[in-house]
């Protein structure tokens, strides 16, 4: 019955895919990134119900005024910015410590290739973080969520169908 358990995650993905279009974008995203005041207020009402959200809206407008002069940077520009080097080095140290903790040694690999596997996994994770962050900046979270859920549901349906055949 493991195939039924596996198909359960596909069912959850399908349900999320069906309901995702009915949820609004994040109000701060609509106001700060897109500049859509009416959409922001509409999203607030849809998320929080009827009410007076002028204080929250005013706070977001203040945040927008504060960040108006700042440039929104992509991932590669952030990596070139010297002021974020301490945070980046801390994250890199954490990533490397996770890779060197010995998890690759439990994967039944030859002892001589374990350091290379650990290094390869760390480099792959670092590249995927940069690549995925760039994709999220370019396309937005909502489209990527739709695509991910649709792809996950499709693959699990195909897997379940192939198991039944």
UniProtKB/TrEMBL annotation:
Subcellular location: Membrane
InterPro entries: GLUT, MFS_dom, MFS_sugar_transport-like, MFS_trans_sf
Chief localization: membrane
UniProt-listed GO biological process terms: D-glucose import; dehydroascorbic acid transport
Origin superkingdom: Eukaryota
UniProt keywords, alphabetically: Membrane, Sugar transport, Transmembrane, Transmembrane helix, Transport
Molecular function (Gene Ontology), one example: D-glucose transmembrane transporter activity
Span of domain Major facilitator superfamily (MFS) profile: 1-165
Residues passing through the membrane, by range: 6-24, 113-136, 143-164
Protein name: Solute carrier family 2, facilitated glucose transporter member 9
């Amino acid at each position: 019955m493991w195939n039924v358990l596996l198909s359960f995650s596909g069912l959850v993905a399908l349900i999320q895919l069906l309901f995702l279009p009915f949820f609004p974008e994040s109000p701060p995203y609509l106001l700060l990134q897109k500049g859509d005041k009416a959409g922001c207020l509409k999203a607030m009402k849809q998320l929080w119900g009827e009410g007076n959200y002028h204080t929250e809206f005013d706070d977001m407008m203040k945040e927008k005024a504060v960040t108006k002069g700042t440039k929104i940077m992509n991932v590669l520009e952030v990596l070139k910015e010297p002021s974020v080097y301490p945070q980046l080095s801390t994250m890199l140290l954490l990533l490397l410590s996770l890779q060197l903790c010995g998890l690759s040694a439990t994967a039944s690999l030859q002892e001589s290739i374990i350091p290379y596997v650990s290094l390869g996994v760390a480099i792959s994770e670092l590249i995927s973080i940069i690549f995925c962050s760039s994709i999220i900046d370019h396309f937005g979270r909502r489209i990527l969520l739709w695509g991910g859920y649709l792809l996950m549901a499709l693959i699990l349906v195909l897997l379940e169908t192939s198991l039944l055949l």
